[in-house]
Automatic annotation (TrEMBL):
Family: Belongs to the OMP decarboxylase family. Type 2 subfamily.
Pathway involvement of the protein, from the record: Pyrimidine metabolism; UMP biosynthesis via de novo pathway; UMP from orotate: step 2/2
Catalytic activity: orotidine 5'-phosphate + H(+) = UMP + CO2
Single GO biological process annotation from the record: 'de novo' UMP biosynthetic process
Name of the featured protein: Orotidine 5'-phosphate decarboxylase
Any one Gene Ontology molecular-function term assigned to this protein's record: orotidine-5'-phosphate decarboxylase activity
Active site: K93
């Protein structure tokens, strides 16, 4: 079954478009978990238990797992999320030349969706695009301040680079498996991109810790009700001062974000 059909079902089941970002920064883990064999896994398991009923997906960012213990923690985390019937979107921002990117794409045997970087062009994304079952979210207009440095540059046609990326992603969507990453911190660009690609679901990061616009995220991020609004630190570290009870606060934060976003959904 196509990823976006599965996501549609999941959104309906939990009445939520919240993507819970699993970015277990080791410097912020609760003290009582640091003696655990795999502290990041111990942390994620408790976060998943507390938030899964509000999560349309879990979105681990690969950057937080790129060491031997991290890879093990990520493997456990993915299996556990799947055990709760929650799809996993790996935020890895992948792409490379053909033989390398074919290796990168093998991760789609393990996760349901991935973020990819369009800078190297279509061939660098082809193994991801060819996977009819997987969701492929192409970076379009990112939420960081420096996102403007390249993405806002005007082409000879007068359109900014991010608009061209959106139009190209639409062409690449031959298997109905492509979405875009557009940050909530730039609501005007969100609206622009939605005008260019009415049918592509967005992954919208930047609500929560980055202070993005939740209403604009919902207004422009969803296509036929399907899309994802991500918060990572705002959910997983909501209970940072709560000691062993930290995960309860994360559950409440996920529920609060779901309710806030649902006010703007149809
Ligand atoms: O444009 C982008 C693309 C990806 N991200 C990632 O999303 C989360 C956001 O975390 P918060 O703690 O909610 O700020 C994180 O993994 C980023 O790497 C993004 O923020 N913006």
């Amino acid at each position: 079954m196509n990823f976006f059909d599965r996501l549609h079902d999941r959104i309906r089941t939990v009445d939520s478009v919240v993507s819970v970002g699993l970015d277990p920064d080791r410097s912020r883990l609760p003290d009582h978990l640091t003696d655990h064999d795999l502290p990041r896994w111990a942390f994620n398991r408790r976060i998943i238990d507390a938030t899964h009923e509000h999560a349309a997906v879990f979105k681990p960012n690969a950057a937080f797992y790129e060491d031997p213990d991290g890879w093990r923690a990520l493997e456990e985390t993915i299996a556990y999320a799947h055990g709760k019937d929650v799809p996993v979107l790996l935020d890895a921002k992948r792409a490379d030349i053909g033989n390398t990117t074919r290796q990168y794409a093998k991760v789609l045997e393990t996760v349901d969706a991935i973020t990819v970087n369009p800078y190297m062009g279509r061939d660098s994304l082809q193994p991801f695009l060819s996977d009819e079952e997987a969701g492929v979210f192409v970076l379009c207009r990112t939420s960081n301040p420096g996102g403007a440095d390249l993405q806002d540059l005007e082409l000879e046609t007068g359109e900014p680079v991010y608009e061209r990326v959106a139009a190209l992603a639409d062409l690449w969507n031959e298997n109905d498996n492509v979405g875009l990453v557009v940050g909530a911190t730039t609501p005007e660009e969100l609206e622009d991109v939605r005008d260019i690609v009415p049918d592509l679901p967005f992954l919208v990061p930047g609500v929560g810790a980055q202070g993005g616009d939740a209403e604009a995220a919902i207004e422009h991020g969803l296509a036929d009700g399907v899309g994802l609004i991500n918060s990572s630190r705002g959910i997983i570290f909501a209970g940072e001062d709560h000691g062993e009870e930290f995960a309860k606060a994360s559950g409440q934060a996920a529920k609060r974000l779901k309710k806030r976003l649902n006010r703007y959904r149809d």
